[in-house]
């Protein structure tokens, strides 16, 4: 006879007592609900006012950490034993999770500009992107029909479980982890392996094959396009041993356009560089890390990494530097050791230098958007297919009589030519931009769906030495999925963003 938790988000279980920990990281928005199902195994027929009680805590069981207390009657009305109640905890947990906006080493600076914020730190911890949640289940009952219900705690009356959550989702009825959709090595059928040890980075960028260097071959990996030195970008990765992570180093390799390797560098994931070694991670903020890996992130990084040569003590791999300035592309990845070429622990993320030439030839302005993807991390995209800006203004007006009585003219009426009968009381102006992609392939088209569906979208603005982001909203209420088959091998998206904050006026 005991209180049990027989279902937790992701799987069925039979949990008793207070020493239960579910080791995996759980996405909160994949299932229609996040169920916690409580059962009492004894016969309840002779009892009255039976309710199960679920308390939800942040971090640990303490009064100050209590998020919610929920009571529910049993819902197995046909039996007197093994009665259950199902609690949906998704909304409670999601209130405790948020996107990471700021660099943990410099909270006045944005996460996108890692490496520039504090130039010795290329990594950052998360800010409530991952959260430990503790569930405590008890029950209450009365032994008489008129008596007050009494809560029973301790011993077999109580059960607890610790779980880890992040604000992430997957497409319903899908299986993740194959080469065509490498979000994660996650099996939606069995609810296991949210993150596999061989793919710990978190990005929605789809797997693409790209020909480079003429006949030199294909790059098979996660493809991003950048300017030579001015593009900010981050990737995120899990950093907890029980989640199968093993990314103590960030690897960086520069290549010429024909595929010739120019240089290899590694960045230790440690406190000196803003991160935390896997073995030392013991808090929620350390279980999920970000790494700056755009050309601008590396351009501003000042020397705390080490080249794959013990004789070279400083980092000389800025994209504009003499060693690699003629690169055609580079790739980043997670690895488990200092040499940076073995024990690879992630897929390869390729950054191809393209947009400098496009800008010079077409005189197009690049609009770079960053957004929170379905996995709770940041993804980015450069739009350079054209931009049209529109300013929309709302005015509140009032009317007065034109002119006035002139007291110095024996109370006669007069008016000036600049006078007005209708006047503007206030104005409110908003800026909208219509953006357009270049012609893209199906993988990129699928990738952009995550932008259209995201609740957090930023425009990454670079003005001189200052870089900042502005919140925007995608205003299109629908979009048509496009494929090469029905769109005659050419896919191009046009959509509109509206800047979240109005234009300042002197009204």
Keywords:
507 residues, seven-stranded mixed sheet, seven-stranded antiparallel sheet, 41% strand
Task: Summarize the structure in words.
With 507 residues, the chain is mainly β. The chain folds into three domains: 3-166; 201-353, no CATH class; 378-398 and 426-499. The chain has four helices and 32 strands. It has helices at 90-94, 295-300, 355-362, 442-453; strands at 3-8, 11-15, 17-27, 35-40, 48-58, 66-73, 83-88, 102-103, 106-110, 123-125, 130-142, 150-152, 159-166, 201-202, 207-211, 218-226, 234-238, 249-255, 261-268, 288-292, 306-307, 329-335, 349-353, 367-372, 378-383, 387-399, 404-406, 412-414, 422-436, 457-463, 466-474, 494-499. A seven-stranded mixed β-sheet has the order 15-16-23-22-18-19-21, with no helix packed on it. A hairpin with a 5-residue loop joins strand 27 (404-406) and strand 28 (412-414). It starts with a strand and ends in an 8-residue tail after the last strand.
Overall 3D geometry? globular
Q: State the distance separating the first and last CA atoms.
A: 71 Å
Quote the beta fraction. Answer: 35-45%
**Average of pLDDT:** 81
SS content category: mainly beta
What share of residues is helical?
Answer: under 10%
Taking pLDDT < 50 over at least 5 consecutive residues as the criterion, the unreliable ranges are 175-200
Task: Tell me which oligomeric state these chains represent.
Answer: single chain
**Major sheet characteristics:** 7 strands, mixed
**Number of beta-strand segments:** 32
Whole-number count of domains: 3
Count of helical regions: 4
Strand order of the largest sheet: 15-16-23-22-18-19-21
* Estimated radius of gyration: 29 Å
